[in-house]
Amino acid sequence: MSEHDDHTHDHKHDHGHDHDNGHAPHPFQPDIEDGPITEYMVLTRAIGELMVEKGVFAAEDLREKLEYMQSRKPALGARLIARAWTDPAFAARLERDAMAAAQELDIDVGVVEIRALPDRPGLHNVIVCTLCSCYPVMLLGNSPDWYKSREYRSRVVREPRAVLAEFGTEIPAETELRIHDSTAELRYFVIPERPAGTEGWSEERLADIVTRDCMIGTALPKPGAA
Amino acid sequence: MATETPPRFAPGDRVRVRAAFPPGHIRTPFFVRGREGRVEALAAIHPNPEGLAYGGDGTPRRPVYRVAFRQADLWEDYAGAPGDATVVDIFEHWLEPAEGGAP
């Protein structure tokens, strides 16, 4: 704590000098270490260090694994959907067994089972994990912060239409909304309907309009977005 | 297999989620406890996370169902469309037949 105090003191001191130059004092931008460290952050770090210390894996393995997870991007899921939009037989396989369908496109899907939730005329799907933050990382990359927020997790099951409207997504009253809470062992992603105005588009061009949020279900693909 | 329990429910069955509140690592969200829904499908058969979380092996493995709850059955003042639903993956030992529901 005393180190922090010294830091603050030095900083104020510097500001005194700045002031001589005619700059108004301003709050400094906190470094990431300046936030409180939570119990779970301590636990995570302790387990990681213990594993390395006990030789279960090396620090390098941990870094590589994290780097690999960071390299997963929504473009992988978008490729699957663009293929499904242009190939009905593939669409059927994707709906039946998303893991096998992804492997057809040489996409590594990992070991946790991921399933596809196809939208239909009159039916729109949305995913959430109300208990924590379960998410199909292998196909969509790391989840956005809001997906993990208590607000999204509690409100999307309580007032889904209001939450979607805040994302700019209005679902017609006659369309049935299904919120999928991945609380157990499975992960899900949404296959949106192919929008009108994309007739004749290439798979690459179609994939460009399938954003991360389209596969969460908080947005719908729009031909103007590409 | 002795370590597995055969599925007790079938698609279409009306079920009620146990209104229980034991401590520990529970994957059944509070907002569906005590609520009635409909079994959509058997999702998978998985080790029980309530044992796995504490160093156990998760046996017997349990059926996990996709259970659909009408939004209007979850929230008294739900303002969306009548067909709106939340589908939750629920381990079998958290489900019981709804009154007059199971065949």
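qc> Chain B touches chain A through 25 residues (CB under 8 Å).
qc> done
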